Amino acid sequence: MMEQLPALLILIPLLTALASPLLSYLSGRLVRCTALAALLAAVFCAVGILTRVLSEGTWHYRFGGWEPPWGIEYAVDPLAGALAVLITFINFMALIYAKTEMEDATRTKKGVFYALFLLTTAGLLGMTVTGDVFNLYVFLEISSLSTYALIASGGKRAIFAAFRYLIIGTVGGTFYLLGVGYLYAVTGTLNMADMAVKIQPLLNTPAVIVAIASIVAGMGIKMALFPLHGWLPDAHTYAPTPISAIISGIMIKVPAYVIFRMLYFVIGAGEGPVQQALTVIGCIGAAGIIHGSIMAIAQKEFKRILAYSSMAQIGYVAVGLSIGNVYGLIGALFHVLNHAVMKSCLFMVAGAVKWRTGEYRIDKIMQVSKKLPLTMFAFLVAAFSMVGLPPTAGFFSKWYLVLGAFEAGKWPFIVVIILSGLLNAVYFFRIIENTFLRKKEGAEAEAEEKEIQTATGLELPLTMLVPILILGAGVLIIGVSNQQIISQVIQYALPGGGF
Amino acid sequence: MIKEMLSSRVIYWLILVMFMLGPFGMILQKNLVKKIMAMNVMQVAVIAFFLVLGQKEGATLPIEIQGLMGAVNYINPLPHALMLTAIVVSLSITGVALALLLLVQKQYGELEEDELIRRMNQ
Fold it and tell me: Which residue among A6, A73, A373, B82 has its CA within the 20 to 30 Å range from the CA of A391?
C-alpha cells in the first residue's frame, strides 16, 4: 500500500470523480461525503509522500513496472511533494466551502460539480508528480477542461468568461505541446530525467530555443503572466466562489511550477537561452505586478479586485524565478504557498460577504464587520499578508524576494516589489475602510436587511466559517514558522537540493 | 533534390503557416464558431508536426510480420501514439467549447462577438 502512494494520489480523486455522477442518483449528501473523503485521503497520501521524499530523496514510481524512458514515470521530489500537499489541502478546504454554493442545486448538478472538482484536483496533482512531459500535457488538459466547465457553472456571464478562457487556455496548451514536440525531436525522449541529460549538449540549437519559447508562452498563458492575462479577471470574477478560490490559489501556480520544473530541472538554467527566457519572464512579471495592482485599485467589485490582485501576485513568483539565486527561488516557492493560502481565504471571505449581504460591490458592504466579525478578522489577517506586514506570511516571501534581488544586483525588482506593496495597501485599505469603518447614511441605515439565521447561531454556516478561519490562521502560522518551513521543506525543493 | 527539400524544409514551413493561421483566425474572426475552428486548425498543425517527426522514407509499419527487420526499416510509432491522445484532447475541448456556445446562444441569442458583448453590457 505505502509503495503505491504516488499512483493512489492521482487515482483516488480520478476514480471518485467517475463515480460521483452515478452516486448522485442515490443521494446528494452521499456524493458530497464521498468527494470529501476522497480528497481527505488524497491529503493523507500527499503528506505521506512528502514525509518519505524528505527523508529518502526523490521517489521514482514506475507505472505498470515499465522502466523509464519507455514507461511513464512519476518522479516525486520534495518540490512536487510539497506542492501536492498544498493542492490537496486548499482543494479540500474549497470543497468543504462549496456546500452552501451547491445547497439548492439538483442532485445531478451536485454529482457533476463534485466530479469536475475532483477531476480538476486529479489533473493538477498529476501535473505536479509526473515525470513525463507528455503526460503533463494530458493532465494539464484534464484540469483545464474541468475548470472551464466549473467556471461556466457560475451563471450567465460566467459562460462567456469560461468560453474565453477555453479559447485562450487551449492556445496555451497547444503551445506547450509544440514545445514538447521540439524537445522530443532533438532528444528522442519524453522522460524528464532522461531529457535533462540528453539536452545538455544541444542547449544552443534553434530547436531548443523554440521549445523554450513555446513552453514559456504556453505556460505563461496558463499562469496569466502580464500580457497573456486577458482571460483571468472575468474567469475569477464570475466563477462560483470555491472555484475562484482554487483557480486563483492553485490553478495559476501549477503552470508556474511547470515553468520552474522545465527551466531549472529539465533544461537546466545555466547559460544561454534559459537565462534569456528567465530575463523575459522577470520583466513581464514585474510589469504584471504593477499593471495588476493598478487595475485592482480601479475596480469596484470585491472579487474583481482580488482577481487583478492574483494577476499581480503571480508576478512575484515570476520575478522570483527570474532572480534565480537561492533567496529568489525560496521567495518564489514560499510565495506560491502564501498566496495559495491567503488568496483562497480572501475569495472565500468575498463569497461569505456575498452570502450574508447579497453584494459584491465594496461600496455597498459598509460595516459588514459587525455582522461577520470572525470572517472579517480572517480577512484582515489575509489582507495584511497581501500588503506584506510582519508577522504575516506575505511579509516573509517578499523579504526573501528582496533579499534575492539585492544579492543578484537586480535593483528594478526591489523597486517594483516595494511599490506594489504600497499599491496593495491602497486597494486593501479601501476594502477595509468600507467594511470596518464607514457608516451607512440615513435611509440606507433604516432599511436594515433581513436577519439571516444559521442553524448553529454563528455568523456563517459552519462549512463556510471553518475553511475561512483555518486559512486565516494558516496565514499567521506560516508567517510565524517561516524559518521551519524553509529549512525543512523548501530548501530541499531547490535545484541541487538547497545550500 | 526537390523531394529532399520538400521533406526536410518545406513541410515544416507549411506546418508553421498552418499553426499561425490558428491564432490569426482566433484574433480576427468575430464569430465564436469560427474561433473554435481556428483553434482546431492550430491543434491539427501540432498533430501534423508530430506525425512528420515520426515519418521516414521507405520504412514500414512497426509490426512484426516476417521476423524483425531492424529499427531502420520501421517508422517511429511513438508520435502516432501520442497524437492519438492529442486528438482525443482536441475532440473533448471542441465538445466543451460547443456546449458552452450552445449556452451562450441560449442566453444571448447571438454568436457574433461584438454584438454579444454589447448585449452583455446592457
Answer: A373
Distance from CA of B46 to the nearest CA of A (A): 6
Question: Which one, of A111, A121, A448, A416, lies nearest residue A288 by Cα?
Answer: A416
Here the cell at position A89 is 489541502
pLDDT category, A178, cuts 50, 70, 90? very high
Give Dmax over CA atoms of chain A in angstroms. 75
Which amino acid is present at B47? I
Give the number of other CB atoms < 10 A from CB of residue B44: 18
> Which residues in B lie closer than 8 A to residue A178 (C-beta atoms)?
19, 46, 49
The rounded distance, in Å, linking the Cα atoms of A354 and A138 is 36
Amino acid identity of residue A321, one-letter, is L
Q: Is the dihedral of CA A65, A69, A74, A76 positive or negative?
A: positive
Pairing of β A73-76 and β A59-62? antiparallel
pLDDT tens track for A102-149? 877 788 888 899 999 999 999 999 999 998 899 999 999 999 999 999
Residue A35 in domain: yes
Question: What's the total number of domains in chain A?
Answer: 1
- Does the complex come out with an ipTM higher than 0.90? yes
User: CA A307 to CA A465: how far, in whole Å?
Assistant: 22
Kindly report the backbone phi and psi dihedral angles of residue B112, in degrees, each rounded to the nearest multiple of 5, phi listed first.
-85, 130
Q: CB–CB of A218/A207 below 8 Å?
A: no
Which cell goes with A424?
496593495
C-alpha cell at A410: 537586480
Domain containing A314 equals: 2-440+457-493
Half-sphere exposure of B29 (CA within 13 A, CB side): 17
Asked, for residue A229, whether it belongs to a domain, the answer is yes
For chain A, state the CA radius of gyration: 22
CB contact under 8 A, B46 and A178: yes
Cβ neighbours, 10 Å, residue A296? 24
CB within 8 Å of A349: residues ≥ 6 apart:
A375, A376, A378, A379, A382, A468
A489 occurs within a structural domain = yes
> What architecture does CATH give domain B2-57+72-120?
Orthogonal Bundle (1.10)
Q: Which of B9, B26, B46, B114 to mutate to test the interface with A (most CBs of A within 10 A)?
A: B46
